[in-house]
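Q: Hi! First time doing this. I have a protein sequence and I read that you can turn it into a structure. Is that right? Here it is:
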Amino acid sequence: SKNIMQFFKNTLTISFISVILLAGCNQNSTAKPTQLDKTANNDTKSLHNTAAQSSDPNNNAEVANALQANLNASGVDVHVLSAVPSGVPDLFWVTLNGSESIFTDKTGKYIFQGSVVELGGEKPVDISAKLHSKNAKQALQSVDKSTMIVFPAQGTPKAAIYVFSDPTCHYCQKLHSEINETTKAGIEVRYLAWPRGEQMLPLTEAIWCSKDRNDAITRAKKGEKITSDACATPIKEHLALGYSLGVSGTPAVFAENGVQLGGYLPSAELAKMAIANKQ
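A: Yes, that's right. Below is the predicted 3D structure, encoded as structure tokens:
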């Protein structure tokens, strides 16, 4: 708990790059951190690999290290994990530690954020959206399901969704009030912890430390008080993952193929979109 509270406090120190990445965050979202708290436990060490050590076979270590050097020289405290070709000549897609992905040029001296659209085909293709989805799919698939709160599909499973959720959020509560309809439609719901601020942390910790987390999150979203003994939680890791995927509010719903479906959607529409974006 102390380490996670420090994580929130660290977000108050906003560097140049975090100001760029904060554009458009709603008032209920926490400030985006520029790095994970240095007291993080061993479970988050994978986020601290140097760019040159990335396991991505497409990683261009030269570009990644050049960008890291330029960030360091400018006093920007973020960590480059990888830089892979974007499909646009001399433009690379950069994965950062705890912050949303960006583009850089082959020199690592310039950074870009926003949509990159390819023209010339039957219709425009949003390259940046495809890269975001690919990143999200890989990152979400790597999360241990035991760290999530999972509501299995009823009957024949048809698809799954990942939901970054805050139990005090009205639209998170509305989404959860329809979870029986969603799971009956064959959709497995996988909740990740995403308290929107330090004041929401105790309730989120109590839910994840409860013996029956499914019951606890259901009661919490009805406004009930939840108490439990302290325990180790994945909240910090879930927060960092959310930030890296561009989450700025809740609920943030992702399909299995990594496409962000949006925030709250009525159950029938949510199920339809989840099935359409299964892979």
